[in-house]
Design a protein that fits this description.
By secondary structure, this protein is an alpha/beta fold. The protein folds into 2 domains: 1-115 and 249-293, Isopropylmalate Dehydrogenase (3-Layer(aba) Sandwich); 125-243, Isopropylmalate Dehydrogenase (3-Layer(aba) Sandwich). 41% of the residues lie in helices and 15% in strands. The chain contains 12 helices and 10 strands. An 8-stranded mixed β-sheet has the order 3-10-9-4-5-8-6-7, with helices on both faces. It has a two-stranded parallel ribbon with strand order 1-2. Helix 9 (188-202) links the parallel strand 6 (169-173) and strand 7 (206-211). Helix 1 crosses helix 12 and helix 8 packs across helix 9. The longest helix has 21 residues, at 61-81.
Amino acid sequence: MGIGPEITVKALRDKRVQRACTPIVIGEPYSLEKAGFTDDLAALIPIDMPGKLAGKPRPTAWGGRVSFQAVETGLKLALKTGCPLVTAPINKQSWHLAGIPFTGHTELLRARTGAEGLMMFVAGQVRCALVTEHFAVADLPRLLAKARVQKSALHFIAALQNLGIKNPRVGVCALNPHAGDNGQFGKEENKVLAPAVRALQKQGFQVDGPVPTDAAWLMHIRGQYDGLLCMYHDQALLGLKLAAKEPAVHITAGLPFLRVSPTHGTAFDIASKNKADASSMAAAVMFATSNKPISIPPLAPLHPNP
């Protein structure tokens, strides 16, 4: 099951969380109790699944089925009530072993809600969002298109406005080193990213780029950008985890309810050892209790690159 039960219990014991909300926990009872869960911490909706925990923490089909059912139950509850949904980390290999046809939370949430859902991250004044999510780096040139970058940027701008930034300044990260060096290290900057940025600027948005990733993160940390639009997963997460001075949270913007999660994985190597840091989980709960759903407007169809 990974560290999910442990960080859940530790977050529930946080006095700030106890003052902020009356939580409902959805999960497998034995693993939660093993981590120290008791009924006085929260109400529990149990996920009882035939099978049992693996002796050594590792990806299993059983764990995938349990975590998927827990997320599905929470998703249905959030859709029915509008309450925030805070998800613990899932193991994508376990979902694959269980035959779950989704690579992660975001893909499932999109399928169940019909919303596009923008994956973004916030840690105080550090904010970033993704154009692509769980894809191999080798697939990025095929996936990046002007329309996709524009749409992601518009959704990110709307989400930042929703967080109280009236006219956000957004830096668009380049895909290649040195922003492609005018086509020497790839064509994506000239063919996709620069045209997308120009189109957004013509609409009156404060968008800059494509900016080399190292420079973009430095400029964001210094306050020159209110957020960074990143082309792929690690381009965002590496900078975020190095730059953040407080726990980061992961948000799926644009859903009918607010969905937040910690920014780390299941960490099987330290599971059941009482070593997991629950600060990101506690921050996720606190963010969920203090914010409304981060809405993104419907957009007119954008013409993709030829």
